[in-house]
């Protein structure tokens, strides 16, 4: 049983919204009955714990992840979680390092086949290899109260307390119409070049650097300035200018903010 979750997450100040494919349905980002709009914004800002920086990201229905799950219980009962709720060990909630608050997740224990659905309302677990920290109730459903940890598969099944049926998720994936939180497309300029080769090399460099952040896109824009052709390299996929500025500061970048 793991009991080292950072439950009182610091209040942060900006929302980070990422762009998916143009065929995905837009889901407005606003307050829910669980989480205020301000908390939604604050918990989507990049943050650092124990020397490691995490970049929260938007997800779509049907998205999956595999790793180790742990659980937490009595020692945290009644304490504040990242979204401002009081942790209730008897409700089916969980902590995830990067997925949005109120994301509905089906957790399946790959070691015994048991599964349950949880709502993300906290950040963590900050232990290598662990991808989710379940409440006592959810952990009991999965058998974690006996094993402590287990290998699990996570699947996004809805948002804001609403769960999509398996049939509907399968249809959305087949037709590429999955729900996803999606707003405007802001970015950061990474460089400007008179020769395409320089732009292409920079694009490759930053694609490698940010390859784990699939919602970000490193693109080359062809423009003209003073009669000269310029190749600008942009890092796109932010939902607001504030989100792009926050990421730029967090990553130590210096380019200007741009928008499609």
Please outline the helices and strands.
Layout: E1 25-27, H1 37-42, E2 47-49, E3 52-54, E4 64-71, E5 93-95, E6 103-109, E7 115-122, E8 130-134, H2 136-142, H3 144-147, E9 150-159, E10 162-163, H4 166-175, E11 179-181, E12 186-193, H5 196-209, E13 217-225, E14 228-238, H6 241-251, E15 257-259
Parallel strand pairs: 1-11, 4-8, 5-7
Antiparallel strand pairs: 2-3, 4-9, 5-8, 6-7, 6-9, 9-10, 12-14, 12-15, 13-14
Pfam families: DPBB_1 (PF03330), SPOR (PF05036)
GO molecular function, one term: peptidoglycan binding
Domain SPOR: 180-260
Description:
With 260 residues, this protein is α+β, with helices and mostly antiparallel strands. It has 2 domains: 25-180, RlpA-like domain (Barwin-like endoglucanases), CATH 2.40.40.10; 186-259, Alpha-Beta Plaits, CATH 3.30.70. It has helices at residues 37-42, 136-142, 144-147, 166-175, 196-209, 241-251; strands at residues 25-27, 47-49, 52-54, 64-71, 93-95, 103-109, 115-122, 130-134, 150-159, 162-163, 179-181, 186-193, 217-225, 228-238, 257-259. The protein is elongated, with a radius of gyration of 20 Å. Residues 1-29 have low confidence and may be disordered.
């Amino acid at each position: 049983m793991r009991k080292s979750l950072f439950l009182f997450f610091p209040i942060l100040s900006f929302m980070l919204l990422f762009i998916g494919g143009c065929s995905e349905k837009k889901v407005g980002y606003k307050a829910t009955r669980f989480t205020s709009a301000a908390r939604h914004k604050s918990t989507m800002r990049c943050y650092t714990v124990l020397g490691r920086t995490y970049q929260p990201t938007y997800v779509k229905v049907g998205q999956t992840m595999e790793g180790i799950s742990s659980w937490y219980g009595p020692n945290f009962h009644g304490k504040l979680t990242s979204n401002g709720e009081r942790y209730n060990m008897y409700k089916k909630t969980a902590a995830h390092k990067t997925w949005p608050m109120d994301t509905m997740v089906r957790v399946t224990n790959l070691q015994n086949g048991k599964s349950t659905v949880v709502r993300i309302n906290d950040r963590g677990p900050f232990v290598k290899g662990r991808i989710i920290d379940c409440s006592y109730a959810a952990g009991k459903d999965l058998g974690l109260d006996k094993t402590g940890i287990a290998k699990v598969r996570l699947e996004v099944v809805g948002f804001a307390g609403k769960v999509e049926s398996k049939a509907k998720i399968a249809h959305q994936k087949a037709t590429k119409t999955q729900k996803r939180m999606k707003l405007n497309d802001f970015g950061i300029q990474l460089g400007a070049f008179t020769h395409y080769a320089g732009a292409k090399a920079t694009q490759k460099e930053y694609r490698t650097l940010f390859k784990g952040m699939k919602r970000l896109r490193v693109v080359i824009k062809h423009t003209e300035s003073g009669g000269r052709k310029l190749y600008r390299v942009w890092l796109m996929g932010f939902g607001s200018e504030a989100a792009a500025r926050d990421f730029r500061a967090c990553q130590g970048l210096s380019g200007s903010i741009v928008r499609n």
